[in-house]
Design a protein that fits this description.
By secondary structure, the chain is mainly alpha-helical. Helices cover 40% and strands 8% of the residues. Strands 2-1-3 form a three-stranded antiparallel sheet, covered by helices on one side. The longest helix is centred in the first third of the chain and has 18 residues. It starts with a helix and ends with a helix.
């Protein structure tokens, strides 16, 4: 396989993976189905306030209402008490709709003082000639191989 074919294979795989994770509820469903632990909450968008209240009581307050689409903190509301749930749900749905064109919201247990690791995927949009290179000159085969390639440069 030549370098262009290898790059296209990696790019296509990453595009499919990122598209599959575009919806947070779909991503939660995939992770749960694969046996990956997810924060307690719903795997589907909430249907109404009664469902939100029932789930929140089951998992315990505080909870976080989150937009199923988008990111950047838009459509998120912390809810510490059941009596605050209705206003928070309306606000989260409204902000999600305005920001992402999708008012779908799900609920999950709020993790207070979380410790986490994030993985950010970066990819060149054009052929390998534009891909970043290590000091040794090799193009990165994929974002996940950057450190190992550069370590051997």
């Amino acid at each position: 396989m030549d370098p262009v074919q290898a790059y296209q294979l990696v790019y296509n795989f990453m595009s499919l993976a990122i598209a599959a994770m575009g919806s947070k509820t779909a991503a939660r469903q995939r992770m749960a189905a694969a046996g990956v632990p997810v924060v307690p909450g719903t795997l589907e968008p909430l249907s109404d306030l009664a469902e939100a209240a029932r789930i929140a009581r089951e998992i315990g307050f505080p909870v976080m209402l989150k937009a199923a689409s988008g990111g950047g903190g838009k459509g998120m509301r912390r809810v510490d008490r059941e009596e605050d749930l209705e206003n928070a749900l309306v606000a989260a749905q409204s902000e999600a709709s305005k920001s992402f064109g999708d008012s779908s919201v799900y609920v999950e247990k709020l993790i207070v003082r979380p410790r986490h690791v994030e993985h950010h995927l970066h990819a060149a949009l054009h052929a390998p000639r534009l891909m970043p290179r290590c000091s040794g000159g090799q193009p990165f085969a994929s974002p996940l191989s950057m450190s190992s390639l550069c370590a051997n440069s």
